[in-house]
Amino acid sequence: MEINKERVNYNIAKPIIFSILYTIYFYVALKFIVESNMLISSDSITKDNVGIRFIGDFFVTLFVPLILVVIYRKKLKEFKLQFKHTYIQYILIGFMILFFFLHNDYTIRGYYKFFFYLIAVGFSEEFVFRGYVYNGLLRYNKSLAVIVSGFFWGILHAILPGLMAGHSVLRIAIGMLYEIGGGILFGYYFIYLLEKSNSLFIPIFIHAILDYQVAGIGVAVSIATGMYFFIKDRKNAKAIIDKENNV
Q1: How does pLDDT run across 199-216, given as a tens digit for each residue?
Q2: Domain for residue 70, yes or no?
Q3: I want to staple 175 with a disulfide (CB 3.0 to 4.6 A). Which of 67, 73, 75, 158 is the partner?
Q4: Measured between alpha carbons, how far is 202 from 122 in angstroms, rounded to an integer?
Q5: For the whole prediction, is pTM greater than 0.90?
Q6: Number of domains forming the structure of the chain
Q7: Residue 86 lies in a domain
Q8: Beta-carbon count within 10 A of 235 CB
């Protein structure tokens, strides 16, 4: 029993320690990019600098998630990284493609933005915080899983603005406090989508759509997707009750 308890404590501590180390890595990598003048805004991407922008995005956002994918390549279903051929997934893909055409930017900048919001932001953040951290803690304590995944996801959003403003580590840390509530709240919405769809691709697509949207359409799509799963869940619950009553 003691061995099992130690194993449980280790499994709980692992996602938390990972989140701390990932936050430190994210800060150091982003600080290096900023201080090396490698930070290129999305609107300033050209054929000449897209390589530099990709290198920065790769090491800041994609390097760690890809390491996790390689390490857990045989257990990706445990993180719900599984594409389910459902209408809702194809509809969300359709909206991403629609937004690409609505942006009407067929330069390297336009193509890179599509990649950035879908892969560098949507995939990387959802896989790390909802896939790895949340699911890693869920089996032991759901409340802890929601809080920890949302907490660390939220505080990351204070790092880039703080570095660009030239703030000290302490000032950035204080700024992180303002991101905690939003991280937990909005993180829970992505968790809801994950739980109801049983696929990490739904929150990945919604995350990307919200960042890539045009004229607020992404917000409408996000709300409609949540309503879809809510109604579907209620119908399934009613069907189960009706079946039990008939039995």
Answers
A1: 999 999 999 999 999 888
A2: yes
A3: 158
A4: 10
A5: yes
A6: 1
A7: yes
A8: 10
